[in-house]
Amino acid sequence: MLASAPEILHALSERLRAHRLAQGLPQRELALRAGLSLGAVRKLEHDGQCSLETLLRVVQALGLMAELEPLFVLRPLSIAQMEKAELAQKRQRAPRSKWR
After folding, report:
1. Which of 3, 28, 50, 95 could form a disulfide with 44 if both were Cys (CB 3.0 to 4.6 A apart)?
2. What's 37's domain CATH number?
3. What percent of the chain stands above pLDDT 70?
4. Distances in Å between the alpha carbon of 77 and those of 14, 51, 83?
5. How far apart are alpha carbons 21 and 28 in whole angstroms?
6. What is the pTM of this model?
7. Any domain includes 100
8. Residue 42's domain spans which residues?
């Protein structure tokens, strides 16, 4: 299991590079498809450093967006969990002050 952010970034950059190579894409072609500079793609593959937008553009250009979908699926909540969340969102009124 990956334990730290640097380990995750390293593994992610290696996996994206492997997908690019499996598709026979040179870095320059991936950069063109993603609308990025060649340097941005090189930096991502070398050390995993990039913005979230760069990451998403590369993932989309490689046709891997479906791999991210599970991150954004909301799990169903029980009625008790929904009620608890609703109560937490309600604001309490401040007590009336007796200034006159």
Report:
1. 50
2. 1.10.260.40
3. 89
4. 36, 32, 10
5. 12
6. 0.71
7. no
8. 5-89
Q: Which two tokens stand for residue 100?
A: 């006159």
User: CA 76, CA 89: separation in Å to the nearest integer?
Assistant: 18
Q: Is residue 37 part of a domain?
A: yes
pLDDT bucket at 81, cuts 50 / 70 / 90? confident
Query: What tokens were used for 79?
Result: 């009625």
Neighbours of 97 (CB within 10 A): 6
As a whole number of angstroms, the distance between CA 33 and CA 37 comes to 10
- Using DSSP, state whether 3 is helix, strand or coil: coil
CA dist 68 → 74, 90, 92 (Å): 13, 32, 38
| Contacts of residue 64, Cβ cutoff 8 Å, sequence gap at least 6 | 19
